[in-house]
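retry 2 of 3: previous attempt timed out while embedding nicotinamide-adenine-dinucleotide. Reduced batch size to 1 and resubmitted. Inputs unchanged:
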Amino acid sequence: MTTSPVALITGAAAGIGKETALAYARSGCDVVVADIQESALHQLVKDIKLIGVDALAVTTDVSDINAVKELHNKIMERFGRLDYACNNAGIEGENAPTAESSLENYDRVMNINVRGLYACMQAQLAIMSSQGRGSIVNMASVAGLIGFPGLPAYCASKGAVVQLTKTAAVEYAEQGVRVNAVCPGAIKTDMIDRITSKDPETEKQFAALHPMNRMGTAEEVANAVVFLSLPGASFITGQALAVDGGMVAR
Ligand SMILES: NC(=O)c1ccc[n+]([C@@H]2O[C@H](COP(=O)([O-])OP(=O)(O)OC[C@H]3O[C@@H](n4cnc5c(N)ncnc54)[C@H](O)[C@@H]3O)[C@@H](O)[C@H]2O)c1
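retry 2 succeeded.
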């Protein structure tokens, strides 16, 4: 049991999730990190503990409902509370235009990005509504706000994340639980390296999608997640905040 706020982050082993875990730790939270990459999680726990807070790694595939239940049970057993959750685990899937994209890809992307996130949110809302407090931040994308050629299933999944966010926000507002989404533009992580194949010309084109003419950093997204999570954002719920260097403002 702990008196510090407890934050959970899924997909925490790399990229945006890892930076968010570290940012929660720097804000004074004990941090639970969940991912399918076990060894990277254990290194991250060591890094978080160096900041001076407690940390727990739980190897979890968010598309496995039993694993999701076990993750939340472990949090309650170990810490007895859950204050903040960032549902960040996600995949981009294959890159192909709609007519050529496979249904297998659609199922895989929706299973992790939407069904997995939904299962996590259900567990978190049950805990947080009984506590009478809590804040959830879901990782959507600008691809949930506008279309991107070659990523139909991914765009559909992130649009669904925005709508799940708004619905839960309205449902649980009176019970003291806030639910928001973050919609990053192109952020320099392994995911964007897979999409651009690190080709300098493609990277330049991705940068140019943003009025700031650059990609974002994982830390810039983490800062937005922590802002929306903490009590400073106490009157903000149901928002899909673009962290995109101005991309969707054009
Ligand atoms: N990088 C971007 O440009 C960008 C832009 C908008 C939104 N996003 C979203 O941000 C989130 C993180 O992206 P990233 O760029 O850090 O990606 P990443 O690929 O660098 O990291 C994703 C992490 O999620 C984990 N993961 C994948 N499937 C999982 C599963 N089934 N269960 C648990 N963990 C799983 C991976 O192991 C990895 O550690 C994703 O939801 C992504 O869609 C990324």
